[in-house]
Structures are given as C-alpha cells and as structure tokens.
Design a protein that fits this description.
Belongs to the metallo-dependent hydrolases superfamily. Hydantoinase/dihydropyrimidinase family. By secondary structure, the protein is α/β, with parallel strands linked by helices. The protein contains 19 helices and 19 strands. It binds N-(aminocarbonyl)-beta-alanine and zinc ion (2 copies).
Length: 552
C-alpha cells in the first residue's frame, strides 16, 4: 500500500514545511517541539495554526497542572439516571457525585448550571492513519483525536489492519501510530486471512494485548474480503476466546458484479459507487453473517448499518433472541445519497463510503430503529480522505477512497437529530453515544459513566447554545466535511479527558503522547449465558443414536 511503498503523502505540502519553520517560541521549547516532531512524522506545527489549538509542551502550560476540578450545579446524566449534582474530580478520577460538594481554593470550578454533564463520547468505529485503497487516511491519532475532543468524544476504538496477514505486525504498526495520541483509545483487530498462525495470534491479541473484538470484511474483494469458510472459522475462534465478532456486511462478489455492471453502462462517476452496491447486497450479507453467528452460537456486532434491509435483518434476529448488535453511523443517520449526483466531482466524491449512504428514507428508518432499541449505539466510521485523495477516482468510482468524516460531529449531530427532535431521552443519548459501547467492549464503568471511581472523561453540553459545522474551521486535517454548513442546537462547551480540561472556550489544550491505550478484556456481557445455550443445543440433539451392530 501507499505508505509501505513510500509514495508521497498528500499532506506533505510546502505550506506545512513553512509552518514548521515559523514556530516562534523559546529555544528550549523549540528544541522540545523539534524532538516531538521528529518522533511524530506528521506535522504538529499545523495544529498550532488549527483553530483554537494551544500547543502545550508541558503539563504546567495552558493550565494542565490543574488536576482538581469541581463541576457545579449541572444535570449529571448517566444511562440509567439523571440528577442535579456536583462532580468532583481528582487526578483523573471521579471522586464524588452529589449535591453541594465543598472544596478548597486549589480546585478549578466549572459552573454547569442549566447544562448537561455527561460521560464523554466513545466512538466504537474509526480509521486513523489507515492504509487503504492505495492511500492513507488523512487524520492520524493526533488530528483525529484533536477533532474528537473538540466534539466531545473522549475515547475511540480504532481498527488495526494486519500487515500482510500478520496480526502482531499490524499491532506494532498501530502502537507506533498511536504514540501521538492525545486521548484514550482501544483497538479492534481485522482478520483478513486464515491459517493456524492467525488463530494463534488471535489468542495472543486477546490474552496479552487487550483486544476483545475482531472484524471480518465481507466486501472489498481482492483485498480485505473474507469468504464464508474463513468467517465460520473466525466466528468459532472468537467464541472460544470470548471475543466479539464484528462484520462489514456487504456481499463482496455482488459488489464486484455491480461495479462491472456500472462500468459496462458507462457510469464511472461517484454515483456509480452507490448504484453498484445497493441495499439488497447489504441485507444479504447481514442476514448471512447473522445466520452463521447463530449456527456457531456466538454474539455478533454489525458495523455501519446503512440500510433498512440490514436493519430489518437485525430486528428479526433480535426478536428471535439472538445476540446481535447493530451500529449505525452518523452519516447513515443524517445524510442521504443525493449529493452523489452532484455535478461537481469533489462534492460528490466526498460522500463515497461503504456501504453507501442510502436514498432518503433509510436515514429516518435507522433513526427510528435507534430510538426503539433495534440498533444500540452510534459510531462514525471516521475514515477521512481529502479532495486530492478522492480525486484518484476522478474517471473511475472504484478508485475513489471510501470513507467520510464524523469523529468531531457525532455528538452534536446525534444530540440535534435524536434528542432535540424528541426521538430519544437525554439518558438514552448517553447510552447510545457512550455507555453501551463501554458495556459491549467490557470497559464499563471505568468508561461510559459519571460514577465515583470512573475515569474523568466528561462533557458539559449547553442545550441552549448552537453549533455550526464548517470545513474551514473543523479540526480534521481534511479540506472537506460531509456535514459542512449544518447547524443545530446543543453545544459541547467543555471536554474533560482523563481529568484534564482539554476543550474550553473554543480552545483545544492537548499534549501529544498523553493518550492512553485502554485494554479491553474478553467475555463482555454479551457472552453471559452463551454456554447455557450450547448445553441446551447439545441436549436437544438426541444423538449420537446408539445402534446395534448390523447382523453379519
Ligand atoms: O467506506 C468506509 N466505510 N471506509 C472505511 C473502511 C470500512 O469499511 O469500514
Ligand atoms: Zn467496513
Ligand atoms: Zn470502518
């Protein structure tokens, strides 16, 4: 892929080089930043120019030494309950949640009267600095996480892609990428081939590396796609390890045929992307994955549910009692496919992702399914490519790198679309943006809750303020934004990550390397009772039947 082959990266511009040289700080600080830049291949200096970014070099700058915080008088919201209370934080941990907490002078006070105090968002689905379709996603663990924090997300789970099928090599590569992290993160691992070595490495990932979920791509034929034989082996292995199997559910052979059909028809633009992979292919693969998971009797997590077809398969399975989790993503919930027909290529191409953003109607149906518990949590699939990268497919939609942004916009857009509209309650908002993710991936209540002992990952949202998304001022490195121009009610005014105020008054206050890797242990709650279902299955077999030897 591009990075491995040493292809020039699109963000290495002369403007950026100039900005590196123009940092005006004391010599010691310059030296520190230089060392940092050497250890972090992409430019942090551009982040000094990022809107509201305070390039801190030590804990004492920008107020980082303040580790005692009292959030006063807000409505504290958890997935199970909300109440007006104060929240006291010390050394990164929530120490107390109750009304009228008294503190000394050394405590920073944040007045949250009339505002909501909620767990920071957890995004279950991101691709930072991922090598994909001949290029690399433009947001790395610095810019992607900076964007996340500015939008109220304090943890994300990224997908490690194996290197030439090797899980360990993939993990090493992602550990390196994550050295510049500014907030907590975890990893899922993709499985792209199958042999004994992969099976052994899966065990190693779970038992020694804190990874408790594996993703199988049923599409991207010729690169990441797995066949049913591999999927069944993978499901079995996941079950034996107490790890959650995740699927990208699209029929990859069908997609290849659909692409050929479009090219034969002379349809080569971005609209050909959506036309080549219709909802029926997503519905089919979702059903197939669900049936195979049922056959193996292991929980299943369907990522980026984009269509009514896929959602209805999940609804049917859940109604029958199967453990299937459905993750819609912000783009599928709030956009429709109309932009793909825009006459301007750059505009149309920025909406290309897989499965595709669907026709109007799918968005509303997915919102409704989310409000009724048919779908359980919201991700972003943040996978950004700038307009130069998208232009790789100018005359052939099959070469447009697939992916859209969302890590910075998720919390605001879901608040506006789901809560302000009255479709869900504030407690449900916390559940679908944070708590359910923490529960599924077995990190609750350390994450996903405002409880004594939980990590101090907290947002303060002002329901009376409003937000506006703009590519010109967002924190992603991309020059485009699929939500550009959208406005709505509700604004994340403060983000606290690991007990530090990292976003306040429109200013980011972050330190590269301060983000921590969060280990996720196996056997999350979705595995409770799986062995009982196995026992019931074995008892139901009435086999093997003992038969007398046939007479000679
Ligand atoms: O278009 C997408 N979704 N790009 C990221 C890779 C994936 O399939 O999740
Ligand atoms: Zn996918
Ligand atoms: Zn993805």
């Amino acid at each position: 892929m591009a990075g491995e082959l040493g292809v020039d990266l699109p963000w290495q511009t002369s403007r950026e080089t100039k900005s590196i040289l123009s940092i005006s700080r004391s010599f010691v600080l310059d030296l520190f930043l230089l060392l940092l830049l050497l250890s972090i291949p992409r430019s942090i200096s551009e982040l000094n120019q990022m809107q509201g970014y305070c390039a801190v070099a030590s804990d004492s700058e920008c107020g980082w030494s303040l580790t005692k915080i009292l959030i006063k008088g807000g409505t504290v919201v958890n997935a199970h309950h909300k109440e007006v209370a104060d929240v006291y934080i010390e050394d990164g941990i929530i120490v107390s949640v109750r009304p009228n907490i008294k503190v000394g002078d050394d405590v920073k006070i944040l007045d949250a009267t009339g505002k909501y105090v909620m767990p920071g968002g957890i995004d279950p689905h991101t691709h930072l600095e991922m090598e994909f379709m001949g290029t690399v996603t433009i947001d790395d663990f610095f810019t992607g996480q900076a964007a996340a924090l500015a939008g109220g997300t304090t943890m994300h789970i990224d997908f490690v892609i194996p290197v030439k099928g090797s899980l360990s090599a993939g993990l090493e590569s992602y550990k390196n990428k994550a050295k510049k992290a500014v907030m907590d993160y975890g990893f899922h691992m993709a499985i792209t081939k199958w042999d004994e070595e992969v099976a052994k490495e899966m065990e190693l990932m779970v038992k020694e590396n804190g990874i408790n979920s594996f993703k199988f791509f049923m599409a991207y034929k010729g690169s990441l796609m797995v066949n049913d034989e591999l999927l069944i082996q993978g499901l079995k292995k996941c079950k034996s390890l107490g790890a959650l199997a995740m699927v990208h559910a699209e029929n990859g052979d069908g997609v290849a045929e659909g692409q050929k059909r479009m090219i034969d028809l002379g349809i080569r633009g971005p609209e050909g992307h959506a036309l080549s992979r219709p909802p029926v292919l997503e519905g089919e693969a979702t059903a197939r994955a669900i049936h195979l998971a049922s056959f193996v009797n292991t929980p299943l997590y369907v990522v980026h549910v984009m269509s009514i077809d896929a959602m209805e398969e999940i609804a049917k399975a859940r109604k029958a009692g199967q453990r299937v989790t459905g993750e819609p993503v912000v783009s599928g919930l709030v956009l429709d496919d109309s932009w793909l027909w825009d006459p301007d290529f750059t505009t149309a191409a920025k909406y290309v992702m897989s499965p595709p953003i669907r026709k109007a109607g799918h968005d509303k149906a997915l919102q409704s399914a989310l409000s009724r518990g048919i779908l359980q949590l919201v991700g972003t699939d943040h996978c950004t490519f700038n307009s130069t990268q998208k232009a790789f497919g100018f005359d052939d939609f099959r070469k447009i790198p697939n992916g859209v942004n969302g890590i910075e916009e998720r919390m605001h857009l879901i608040w506006d679309t789901m809560v302000v509209s009255g479709q869900i309650s504030v407690t449900d908002y916390v559940r679908i943006t944070s708590t359910e993710c923490a529960r599924i991936f077995n990190i609750y209540p350390r994450k996903g809750a405002i409880l004594e002992g939980s990590d101090a990952d907290i947002i303060i949202l002002n329901p009376n303020a409003s937000f506006k998304v703009a590519a010109a001022s967002h924190h992603s490195r991309s020059d485009t934004n699929v939500y550009d121009g959208r406005t709505g009610k509700g604004k994340v005014e403060v983000t606290i990550s690991g007990g530090r105020i990292v976003w306040e008054d429109g200013t980011l206050n972050i330190v590269p390397g301060s983000g921590r890797y969060v280990r996720m242990e196996p056997y999350g709650y979705l595995f409770d009772g799986v062995e009982k279902a196995d026992a019931a299955y074995l008892a139901s077999l009435r086999a093997p039947v003992l038969r007398a030897q046939a007479a000679a």
